[in-house]
Automatic annotation (TrEMBL):
Family: Belongs to the CbiM family.
Known role: Part of the energy-coupling factor (ECF) transporter complex CbiMNOQ involved in cobalt import.
Name the UniProt record assigns to this protein: Cobalt transport protein CbiM
Organism phylogeny: Bacteria, Bacillati, Cyanobacteriota, Cyanophyceae, Nostocales
Pfam families linked: CbiM
Subcellular localization, as worded in the UniProt entry: Cell inner membrane; Cell membrane
Quaternary structure annotation from Swiss-Prot or TrEMBL: Forms an energy-coupling factor (ECF) transporter complex composed of an ATP-binding protein (A component, CbiO), a transmembrane protein (T component, CbiQ) and 2 possible substrate-capture proteins (S components, CbiM and CbiN) of unknown stoichimetry.
Keywords of this entry: Cell membrane, Cobalamin biosynthesis, Cobalt, Cobalt transport, Ion transport, Membrane, Transmembrane, Transmembrane helix, Transport
Designated gene of the protein: cbiM
NCBIfam families (alphabetical): cbiM (TIGR00123), PRK08319.1 (NF006184)
Gene Ontology molecular functions: cobalt ion transmembrane transporter activity
């Protein structure tokens, strides 16, 4: 399984034209703007990870798993009927486990590796890509999970959190592109509808698939990582689960 994942991520010959904004595509002023916006979240995320690893070093492996899950899913480029590509994001799981601030760091590191190793995204557009995938997506996932899990439907909460985080990433990216490249006729709105429409056909079923996959991974964790989930107050004894969760971390 590990060799298959490595091949899909590194060995595939598919061109990297997915929804990460590619290297050099954004005007300089917008590239700088998104770096400035993303930086505070990254700094707070570093503090969050430091605190987690210091207080509960047993969770380091689960942190690594969350990052690996994001890396593999977001690196898979799936052809779109619109002639481009789409991909999952994989940030919902980590946001549920550790909170959105932690994922701001893990997601940004994933984007750096993808830019350097896979030509997927870019370093000049790292701030914009991090804001959409590693910041906004996890924040939305975290709060959707918190809202729905309070009803007692934990797996539904995990599914919706992951699926909506995927969709919101693409919406935010479309907003970023529309701000940078408003249409000559119709301005921002026309440009946003154009960019969002390119991926809408494939991204909705892809988001649903990501939600289902995240639930499957969660089921696996409840069997083989139960102690770690209990430490995070995400589950209790068999037959019960906690609706409590740590804060924004």
């Amino acid at each position: 399984m590990a060799f298959l994942s490595f091949y899909l991520v590194v060995g595939s010959e598919a061109k990297a034209h997915a929804m990460h904004i590619m290297e050099g595509f954004l005007p300089k002023e917008w590239a700088i703007f998104w770096f400035i916006v993303a930086l505070p979240f990254f700094v707070l995320g570093l503090r969050s990870i430091t605190r987690i690893t210091n207080e509960k070093p047993e969770l380091k492996l689960l942190l690594a798993l969350s990052g690996a899950f994001t890396f593999v899913l977001s690196a898979l480029k799936i052809p779109s009927v619109t002639g481009s590509c789409s991909h999952p994001t994989g940030t919902g799981l980590g946001a549920i486990l550790f909170g959105p601030l932690t994922m701001s760091v893990l997601g940004t590191l994933v984007l750096i590796f993808q830019a350097l190793l896979l030509a997927h995204g870019g370093l000049t557009t790292l701030g914009a890509n991090a804001f959409s995938m590693a910041i906004v997506g996890p924040i939305v996932a975290f709060w959707i999970y918190r809202l729905i899990v309070s009803t007692g439907k934990q797996r539904l909460a995990i599914f919706l959190a992951s699926a909506v985080a995927d969709l919101i990433t693409y919406i935010v990216t479309s907003i970023q592109l529309a701000l940078a490249f408003p249409a000559a006729t119709g301005g921002f709105v026309a440009s946003f509808l154009k960019f969002a429409g390119i991926f809408a056909i494939t991204q909705i079923p892809l988001a649903i698939s990501e939600g289902l996959l995240t639930v499957l991974v969660w089921n696996w964790l409840t069997n083989y990582g139960r102690q770690e989930l209990e430490m995070l107050n995400l589950i209790q004894k068999p037959g019960f689960f906690s609706t409590e969760h740590n804060n924004l971390q």
